[in-house]
Amino acid sequence: MPRTSPARPRIQLTRSQQIAALVAVVLIAYLASQWWHGRQPSGPARPAMTTGTVVKLGPAKDGVAELTVRYRVGSDIREVTKPVDLAAFDAQGKVAWVCYRPGDAGNAAIRLPEDELCGQR
């Protein structure tokens, strides 16, 4: 049976036009990917970490003690007091780190050396 619909015209592109079209498609996909990832929240909740100086170790209750650590953010000196496992604190050399958000350095957490990295919980 003969074909009743007219033949569709084919788009004829030269080799350089095909390469340019491929580059344009890849570039559009890359830019869309960057835009999409830029809209997603990035980084951990407390991405900054600094060393701290233990100022005070409160009395232990059920193996947990209140630890006060002094730390420096820029030119500010701050303190944070949080409960820590006393046995872990002693076993890890009585060293403490402080995790904080750069925009809110007053909201900090104490990290012992063998704890998970800041914001990875």
UniProtKB/TrEMBL annotation:
Keywords: Membrane, Transmembrane, Transmembrane helix
Transmembrane domains' residue ranges: 20-37
The name this protein goes by in its record: DUF3592 domain-containing protein
Domain of life: Bacteria
